[in-house]
């Protein structure tokens, strides 16, 4: 695979520095003293024999401003400090035989490095990898790591895409986390953001304005992927995480907000490039989308290695229907699921998306494409994630507002259904630790964030007042840190046993049959009865029968056929808030 265009390149004799700065007249690389760079076709380049890994540098633009390298491998002093040259080849990997796991094995836990442990570091996460394995988790998915301003952030404000944030440790610490995960059979995935740059510390507009279009996203100027260098910047970044850090896959954030005038497909090219890396290395590489447009046509769970499509999409529809069923919420997009959330759940279980071209009142138009012909493995289902918890005014989890029996039924459905299940950190023991939005901006930007949140959540401030956490307050971040003493308590232990038992059944009975699985039929009755079935890859039929109500429901059904793998044998009725799974 050819070398990166962006960022420093260690050579046999030294380091080649390179910067794409078409709007600059002069660029110097700043080491102990300025070193002039040569311009060719908008690129400034110099190769220096007396520089080694560990060197720190900046670029001086037109003798006016010093900036970090946009392809920086590490920023030891945050985004305004110098970039550091990293020798990725020097890390002593231990799990050298690791080639990943097939997608049908995936049971994901989403985690924020800073809030996962009190220490908030890559290395501190290693201490809890055994817990994940013992629970039945097979994939750890990290929120974005691209360097952001300050000491705390969700990660979606990254401005230096190639540099893992120093708030959590050094690059070798991140590699140690991934290596230790692989030694335990855990995949590690990374959330990446290619729809915008963060609002603080981005200097690209000064020396490479071609990075941006006149269009706008919800977070600022749109990135112009019609420009070859800009397109390469994103694709090479994806390969950087997959190759240099050996991540097993990527989740691409809000791709419906990637603006591509002219119909160019960054998604296709990125997938194809990742597929080439997978072929070269013999690895399983999994690419997943967040896409509010529900575009089934870009998904193919069976395409291995990737050749332009994506394994799966986060299925927001599934979450929204369950949330409305359990809480009756009506704010924002939940209004689209008020008519019959139980019917919506049945539709998702039988064909993936709920909105497959129908009119969305929240969006003001049609949303989605037909998805029933896809594999159930093309959908990542969840009852909570960083967005669905953190974008609530109080950052409260479903566990804080939902009924225990309803949540446990929802878990029994999600963790054994053929779609890929995902938990949010601590959900496996029923943690009530909030996950509010937090960041560490200063000055006018901090004030703008506060004003924006007060405008967006005007109703919440009217109802809760000072209870709504201040995103800029250190205490807000600290409130999100998981308490690892919780799982030792009686009630969390009970929930953890439930999740572990369900995932043991999944590992034994479901996962080995998922290759080639197909959607079947599903139905929901107004009294709370939910049924569904799937044709498994080995020709067996997986059948679900659930009562999502407070009373017994009489039911005589073919669902009684097959071997019971979860729940109790039924007589004439289905008990309240119960789930029965059969396979046969």
Your description of this structure?
The protein has 584 residues and is of the alpha/beta class. Among the domains are: 9-87, Immunoglobulin-like (Sandwich), CATH 2.60.40; 437-473, no CATH class; 516-583, Golgi alpha-mannosidase II (Immunoglobulin-like). The protein is built from 16 helices and 30 strands. The strands form 8 sheets. The chain has an 8-stranded parallel beta barrel. Strands 3, 4, 7, 8 and 9 form a 5-stranded antiparallel beta sheet that branches. Helix 6 (228-244) packs parallel to helix 7 and helix 13 packs across helix 14 (458-464). The radius of gyration is 24 Å and the shape is globular.
> What name does the CATH topology of the domain at 9-87 carry?
Immunoglobulin-like
The level of helicity is: 25-40%
Q: Over all CA atoms, what is the radius of gyration?
A: 24 Å
Query: β content, as a range?
Result: 15-25%
The CATH homologous superfamily of the domain at 9-87 is named Immunoglobulins
CATH architecture descriptor name of the domain at 9-87: Sandwich
Overall spatial form: globular
The total of beta strands comes to: 30
Q: Please mark out the parts with pLDDT under 50 across 5 or more consecutive residues, or reply none.
A: none
